[in-house]
């Protein structure tokens, strides 16, 4: 089990979510676990609370989970998913204020060195600043 | 302890350099690799693209990405701390291998 902060990518588009996750895996490598949730349950554009929860659960670690979201509902549904995880687990999950693709790569790069969730958040949010 | 390790333990810098051979320069993927490798060392590791630029923290993905070091430019690397020798050698080797591209 890797002791690194892991990454969850949430997009309205399943293709964007999967593409961003693939990009992180290829650029940063396997030592940072990445999960994604994109699109609605019926395959349309949108986000799905249950799918976001499942993605967070898939890579959850006490070290922390950094969630990257694209627009509007992706953020509110992610907040809801984190709430539904319960306080204990949800306390180790943070939604980062950073662009999905760039933020995910920077967050994963920072996470690969064993950085804390706060440090990972800082790096992703400082990108482009 | 070798002479240089003793020197770096006293807060001095071990330095090295290698030329960036990738036609695109130090682009995103190499920048990520450099940062990841630098993070594996306890030493303070810094890089700069040419002799008159300020030193950049090699462990900071943002800073390394922003350097935009160009093709053909020497990348200077310095480290200070217990494993400074190994850090400089590893980073120089990574640049010389063209980041395993």
Automatic annotation (TrEMBL), chain A:
Does Cytoplasm appear among the keywords? no
Q: How does it assemble?
A: Homodimer. The dihydroxyacetone kinase complex is composed of a homodimer of DhaM, a homodimer of DhaK and the subunit DhaL.
Question: Which is one Gene Ontology cellular component term of this protein?
Answer: membrane
- Keyword Transferase recorded: yes
Where is each PTS EIIA type-4 domain found?
4-129
Stated EC number for the protein is 2.7.1.121
Tell me the Gene Ontology biological-process terms attached to this UniProt entry: glycerol catabolic process; phosphoenolpyruvate-dependent sugar phosphotransferase system
Enzyme kind, highest EC tier: transferase
Protein's name in the database: phosphoenolpyruvate--glycerone phosphotransferase
List the InterPro entries hit by this protein, alphabetically. Answer: DhaM (IPR039643), DhaM_N (IPR012844), PTS_EIIA_man-typ (IPR004701), PTS_EIIA_man-typ_sf (IPR036662)
The record ties this protein, via PROSITE patterns, to: PTS_EIIA_TYPE_4 (PS51096)
Q: Which reaction does it catalyse?
A: dihydroxyacetone + phosphoenolpyruvate = dihydroxyacetone phosphate + pyruvate
Pfam families, from UniProt?
Answer: EIIA-man
> Which SUPFAM superfamilies does the annotation name?
PTS system fructose IIA component-like
Q: Which UniProt keywords apply?
A: Transferase
One GO MF term attached to the UniProt entry = phosphoenolpyruvate-glycerone phosphotransferase activity
Task: Give the protein's function.
Answer: Component of the dihydroxyacetone kinase complex, which is responsible for the phosphoenolpyruvate (PEP)-dependent phosphorylation of dihydroxyacetone. DhaM serves as the phosphoryl donor. Is phosphorylated by phosphoenolpyruvate in an EI- and HPr-dependent reaction, and a phosphorelay system on histidine residues finally leads to phosphoryl transfer to DhaL and dihydroxyacetone.
């Amino acid at each position: 089990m890797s002791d690194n902060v892991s990454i969850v990518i949430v997009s309205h588009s399943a293709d964007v979510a999967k593409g961003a996750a693939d990009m992180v895996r290829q650029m940063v490598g396997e030592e940072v676990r990445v999960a994604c949730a994109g699109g609605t349950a019926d395959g349309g554009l949108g986000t799905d609370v249950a799918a976001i929860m499942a993605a967070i659960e898939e890579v959850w670690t006490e070290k922390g989970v950094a969630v990257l979201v694209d627009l509007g509902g992706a953020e509110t549904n992610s907040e809801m998913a984190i709430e539904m995880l319960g306080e204990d687990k949800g306390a180790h999950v943070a939604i980062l204020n950073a662009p999905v693709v760039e933020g995910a790569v920077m967050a994963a790069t920072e996470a690969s060195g064993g950085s804390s969730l706060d440090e990972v958040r800082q790096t992703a949010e400082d990108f482009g600043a | 302890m070798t002479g240089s390790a003793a020197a770096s333990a006293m807060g001095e810098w071990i330095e090295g350099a290698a030329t960036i051979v990738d036609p695109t320069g130090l682009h995103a993927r190499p920048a990520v690799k450099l940062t990841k490798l630098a993070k594996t060392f306890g030493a303070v590791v810094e890089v700069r693209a040419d002799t008159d630029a300020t030193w950049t923290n090699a462990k900071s993905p943002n800073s390394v990405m922003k350097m935009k070091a160009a093709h053909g430019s020497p990348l200077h690397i310095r480290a200070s701390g217990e494993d400074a020798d190994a850090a400089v050698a590893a980073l120089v080797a990574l640049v010389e291998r063209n980041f395993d591209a």
